[in-house]
Amino acid sequence: MKRHLIRAASLLMCGMLLLALGACGKSASQGDLLSRIKDKGELIIATEGDWAPWTYHDESDALVGLDVELGKLIADGLGVKAVFQETDWDSILTGVKSGRFDIACNGVGYTEKRAEDYNFTQTYIYTQMGLVVRSDNSDILTVNDLAGKTTANSPSSTYAEIAEQYGATVSFVNTIQETMTLLEQGRVDATINSMESIQDYLIQHPEAKVKVVQVLPGEEMVIPARKDADTQSLIRAINEILDAARKDGRLRDLSEKYFHLDLTQPAN
């Protein structure tokens, strides 16, 4: 009888130990996104790779740009490796939403509509937008002249939404190179884009037959993660990293390196 009691007690203890180990295993494998990123040692970052000076390839084909360096800065702050996955703009936000990417570093502008589907960090860059037309165009001087005209922009971009709000029909393209080509060929009438990218394009292509006719207040650039409680601690951790980088000047240095301006503070 005593032997049966000892055996039963042993089985009970083993069962409790297995349950405890199972719970620990479940906790480790099913922690929030920040815990899983740290366990894996990698932060998966979505980016385009063809939108200078935000994210692009240099002469040696290395992936560079403000958002690339920012992604590495964030990964370093988390104590993990930055792993960039390049994709077209229209797949970036859907990939973040589905969990394919942990975050995106690609000049994503904050909008209330996007905030319904994504958790966002604080703003890290405050931009301007430019309205661009062909050099010989005298019909379009402001966005109010876009009604009935055609523009070129990336699908799902805020620039495309703004053009449509002013009555333009948008032709969808994936890169600023394609945008400017369509514009120079006269296949579209105008484009709205980041002034930082427009200025970089004009530096790289001084022969381009395009001109900026209006500069507008731009977007507040943020870093998106999936919209659920699973990502909240990650967003908090990234905000702490951005706070530190803003305080010690690293964020300003990145802005001045790629934009030749400090765009880390809102315009007065």
Care to describe what's here?
- The protein has helices at residues 2-29, 33-40, 66-78, 89-98, 112-115, 158-165, 176-184, 195-204, 232-247, 250-259, and strands spanning 42-47, 56-57, 63-64, 81-86, 103-104, 108-109, 118-120, 125-134, 150-153, 169-172, 190-194, 210-222, 224-226.
- It is of the alpha/beta class.
- It has 2 domains: 33-124 and 223-259, 3-Layer(aba) Sandwich (D-Maltodextrin-Binding Protein, domain 2), CATH 3.40.190.10; 127-219, Periplasmic binding protein-like II (D-Maltodextrin-Binding Protein, domain 2, 3-Layer(aba) Sandwich), CATH 3.40.190.10.
- A 4-stranded antiparallel beta sheet has the order 6-12-8-11, with helices on both faces.
- Strand 9, helix 6 and strand 10 form a beta-alpha-beta unit.
- The model is unreliable at 1-6, 8-12 and 14-29 (pLDDT under 50).
CATH architecture grouping of the largest domain: 3-Layer(aba) Sandwich
Task: Give the biggest sheet.
Answer: 4 strands, antiparallel
Q: What spatial form do the alpha-carbon principal axes imply?
A: globular
Highest CATH level, the class of the largest domain? Alpha Beta
Gap between N and C termini: 85 Å
The percent range for helix content is 40-55%
Radius of gyration: 24 Å
Mean pLDDT: 90
Order of strands in the sheet with the most strands? 6-12-8-11
User: Which structural class do the helices and strands define?
Assistant: alpha/beta
Low-confidence stretches: 1-6, 8-12, 14-29
Q: CATH topology of the largest domain, which one? A: D-Maltodextrin-Binding Protein, domain 2
Helical element count?
A: 10
Tell me the series of helices and strands, N- to C-terminal.
HHEEEHEHEEHEEEHEHEHEEHH
The H-level CATH homologous superfamily of the largest domain, spelled out, is Periplasmic binding protein-like II
Q: Give the total of domains.
A: 2
Proportion of residues in extended strands? 15-25%
Number of strands: 13
